[in-house]
């Protein structure tokens, strides 16, 4: 994330995309990154209203390519998105409440419970109870 120039998330014209904000939208404020998003619903509406990135139809390759360039290349469009992110930052509560987590992540330490017997036992139990989790993800969920 630290080397990213923008957040990009596009999807299909699904009910979820039309009615919900995408989870990763919060990362725009956390990492101060412009967002390239499709126009399908709430996320596209918010990105457009706040001016924090371009909204482009992923079914139109030229439009999507232009949006990617606008969000990532140094110049007036990207500068405008970053300025809009600065103006909107106070609206994102998670940006204020996750600062301790981000500081901890910056230290590079691993999670304290990683590979402990309790964690290994819990993961093994989860996989035993739900064997489908061990296979490849389905194309459609």
What is the topological layout?
Layout (H helix, E strand, L loop, with lengths): L6 E3 L5 H5 L6 H6 L3 E3 L4 H9 L10 H12 L3 H13 L4 H5 L1 H8 L10 H13 L12
Parallel strand pairs: 1-2
Descriptive overview:
The protein has 141 residues and is mostly helical. It has helices at 15-19, 26-31, 42-50, 61-72, 76-88, 93-97, 99-106, 117-129; strands at residues 7-9, 35-37. The chain has a two-stranded parallel ribbon. The radius of gyration is 19 Å and the shape is globular. The two termini are 26 Å apart.
Question: Overall 3D geometry?
Answer: globular
Number of helices: 8
- What is the number of beta strands? 2
In percent terms, what proportion of residues is strand? under 5%
Q: Tell me, rounded to a whole number, the average pLDDT.
A: 83
Distance between the termini: 26 Å
Helicity range: 40-55%
Give Rg in angstroms.
Answer: 19 Å
Low confidence ranges: none
User: Which structural class matches the secondary elements?
Assistant: mainly alpha
* Sequence of strands across the biggest β-sheet: 1-2
Give the SSE string.
Answer: EHHEHHHHHH
**Main beta-sheet annotation:** 2 strands, parallel
